[in-house]
Amino acid sequence: MRLIIPCLSRFPLLVVLLGLAACGVESPSVPGQEPVEVARIEGSVFYRERIMLPPGIEVEVQLQDISRADAMATVLATVTSTPQGGPPYGFVIEYDPTIIDSRMRYALRATISNGEQLLFSSTDYIDPFESNPVEILVHRVPESVRREGPSLEGVTWILDSLAGESPGPGAGGAPVNLQFSAQEKRASGFSGCNRYTGGYAREGANEYGSALKIGPVAGTLMACQEGAELEQRYLGMLDRVTAFRLDGDTLSLLAGPEVLATFKSS
């Protein structure tokens, strides 16, 4: 049985701190576990230019802590979608209301990108808790502007952790790695013993990161004394991936809120 508190149009920050969220709280009842409070911010992203964007654009909205003027914003939650058609583009961000501190300052930031090319970005301050739903106006940016940090594609990602532990090297001391080819929509790399390859898709929305599905994958058939167990665990992990997050040079693969593995860009 699940208890769902309906969305209210305007919630003061104090109520958010008490766990009743900007747009509702869902508390699944699981025997032996405390109900998990999830706050939601709903809204839409739009632009005023009379243009149609190419297929495959990515709309990202972040909930940020911008309290420190001398430091980069801290991303508390993000949601990414690959919508069809024109704006407005709806979004729902879910986050833990217990991390909100009334002494701090928070904002929403939205971008629209096409691969590594940043097309639109919000420039005005958007208070996440002032109203619900929230409308975010984004403005066109110069064609020369690229997305911040490394993109998912075109980078060799070296496995840094698997199930929260250091994976160690594979056969011959080579690290497990992963590459994404945007043109072929293929994921490939070294899995600890063999080379592997498979398709991937980034369509849809995910409340914990950017939607991602990998596989099925196929690999070479070499037998290894070293790296075989690591390879089995790694390939099983890829099959569970539902989303990813990028934070600087770190890639995290997720299954729901669970971090399955992390990688570093080489």
Q: What does it look like?
A:
Helix content is 7%, strand content 42%. It starts with a strand and ends with a strand. The N terminus is likely disordered. The protein is mainly beta and 266 residues long. The strands form three sheets. The protein has a nine-stranded antiparallel beta sheet with strand order 14-16-17-18-10-11-12-13-15. A seven-stranded mixed beta sheet has the order 5-4-7-8-9-3-6. A two-stranded antiparallel sheet has the order 1-2. The protein contains two helices and 18 strands.
The low-confidence runs, each spanning 5 or more residues with pLDDT under 50, are: 1-31
What pattern of helices and strands is seen along the backbone?
A: EHEEEEEEEEEEEEEEHEEE
Largest sheet: 9 strands, antiparallel
In round numbers, the mean pLDDT is 82
End-to-end gap: 46 Å
Estimate the global geometry from the Cα principal axes.
globular
Oligomer: single chain
How many strands? 18
| Continuous helix count | 2
Structural class: mainly beta
C-alpha-based Rg, rounded: 20 Å
Proportion of strand residues? 35-45%
